[in-house]
Specification:
509 residues; alpha/beta; 6-stranded mixed sheet; 6-stranded antiparallel sheet; membrane
Length: 509
């Protein structure tokens, strides 16, 4: 399309960007625990030099080529920088969310055959309690900083088709699986992303709050740096901090998880000036309701701001895209995710036997992606269960139109009896009931649809409006109120629906 394919070596990509755009800025909203020398403002070139020093310190501690290094720390930009430093050594960064409990970590550690683990204060207690990892393989951030060396070590390389990076699945259905990526598979994903970035003519500031352990993060940062964009990674997504940071830096582009956009929507309605500088909004991981997108587009000072909605999956990368504007949203079904990128990604709908169905018929969504992951590490049979030749069964349920547009209806495991799409109902409720920050419909104790809702902290539950809105919908049980922060979530803020169901079945709600 626009960009040539190139395998992605995290450090090599970083170094080439630093050579082309040495003075380009990277800003932070909080100091970085593992890279305090970068303070709150650095450049591509200075951060590259800091990376080589950290890699040298890790080598001095004992990390060697081909070894696995779990990065298990607070969710900041230095999580990614550590992964790049590990890649410099020809070692394999294993990106694990800090929210995973010690019990889960012990299972993953055993699967990885005596890896190293880098941790910080946020994860120290869990890291030091692990039964399957000796203390000699634990590396505190403070130990890295205190390690001295005489000269910088040289970069080492893995072959482009070797496992060079691992992330984990959300764990919404159990213990997360470890998704293995290679430089080759990640290269196709950056080609997809760089094609999108080629549409943005101005190299304006890109602000983002994304889980740094997700493959979306390394693909996004690698692509942005290859194009020379200034970066503003946001560690703290609180309303107060978003107000402060966006007002101070006035970014051109803003990306975050769908659920953070939903949570920030009340701020956008009350203080639209906070988001007025943004021309391009970007949301991935999951679908997002229409009114939330419209709310942010109305804030922009630009005549034609754009909201890019991307549907994808960790195993396949970014897949299906759709560009929304204020005018197109008026006639858009937010469940309609769009189309794939020619030559790189596409989707089809199949029945329970894996056979393609006609347009307009609902079924399982299968994906074709040149950037598909290699396997689940040490769980290849589980990976192969979802492989249908060149196609990957996403676990999602949807439908395609006669023109080829894909609509997302539900996760296959989340289907609720007598409801065509719980996601569509959730969207409709969030579109109309702006006092809500979250609506989740799960299976109740008798299998009936049970809404779980979170009310915005500055509002109250309006029961009259709720019952008026649901009166023409399929029957829903009386909603259960929960605080937004108490809803179980993954690292990318997706609701762990099965965990909610288990809690309901055990009468904890």
């Amino acid at each position: 399309m626009f960009n040539k394919y190139k395998p992605l070596n995290l450090y090599t990509n970083f170094a080439e960007a630093a050579e082309r755009f040495p003075s380009q800025a990277i800003y932070f909203d909080e100091p970085l625990t593992a890279f305090p020398e970068l303070q709150l403002h650095t450049t591509y070139a200075d951060s590259k030099n800091a990376l080589i020093q950290k890699a040298t310190q890790l080598r001095k501690i004992g990390v060697k080529k081909g070894e696995k290094v779990i990065v298990y720390k607070s969710a900041k930009f230095d999580t990614y920088l550590l992964a790049v430093a590990v890649s410099y050594l020809g070692a394999v960064p294993i990106m694990i969310s800090a929210h995973l409990p010690a019990e889960t970590m012990d299972i993953l550690v055993a699967r990885l055959d005596n890896p190293w683990m880098v941790f910080d204060g946020d994860t120290a207690a869990k890291a030091q309690s692990l039964k399957n990892l000796p203390a000699s393989k634990l590396i505190a951030v403070e130990e890295i900083l205190a390690t001295t060396f005489d000269q910088l070590c040289e970069q080492d390389f893995l072959t482009p088709d070797a496992i060079s990076y691992m992330t984990h699945t959300s764990g919404t259905t159990g213990v997360p699986k470890l998704i293995a990526h290679s430089a080759n598979s990640m290269g196709w994903r950056t080609k997809w992303q760089k094609n999108i970035l080629s549409l943005i003519r101005k190299r304006g500031l890109v602000a983002f709050h994304i889980s740094p352990v997700h493959s979306r993060f390394n693909i996004g940062i690698s692509s942005l740096m290859a194009k020379g964009f200034p970066l503003l990674p946001i560690a703290n997504p609180s309303r107060a901090n978003i107000t402060k940071v966006l007002t101070e830096f006035a970014p051109l582009v803003l990306e975050t998880h769908p659920n953070h956009f939903v949570q920030w929507a009340s701020l956008a309605r009350e203080e639209p000036s906070v988001f007025e500088s943004v021309k391009y909004y970007h949301s991935t991981f999951d679908a997002i309701n229409k009114e939330t997108m419209a709310t942010f587009l109305r804030c922009s000072e630009y005549r034609l701001p754009v909201f890019l909605q991307v549907y994808g999956q960790s195993e396949c990368g970014p897949m299906i895209m759709r560009f929304h504007t204020k005018s197109t949203l008026k006639r858009t079904n937010a469940r309609a995710m769009g189309v794939g990128m020619p030559g790189l990604t596409k989707a089809r709908i199949v029945d329970q036997d894996g056979k393609p169905v006609a347009a307009g018929t609902s079924g399982n969504i299968q994906m074709f992606s040149k950037g598909r992951a290699l396997t689940y590490y040490k769980e290849t049979p589980r990976f192969e269960e979802n492989v249908y030749g060149a196609w990957w069964d996403s676990g999602d349920y949807g439908v395609k139109s006669r023109l080829g547009g894909l609509s997302l209806l539900d996760r296959q495991v989340d289907l609720v009896d007598k409801i065509d799409s719980t996601l569509a109902i959730e969207d409709a409720l969030l579109d109309e009931l702006t006092f809500l920050d979250e609506v989740v419909i799960i299976r109740g104790k008798n299998g009936s649809p049970q809404p779980i809702v979170a009310v915005n902290e500055s509002a109250e539950m309006n029961w009259d409006l709720w019952w008026k809105k649901v009166s023409d919908l399929p029957h829903l049980n009386e909603p259960i109120l929960m605080k937004y922060d108490e809803m179980p979530r993954t690292a990318t803020m997706k609701i762990q629906r099965l965990e909610l169901e288990r809690s309901l079945q055990n009468s904890e709600m």
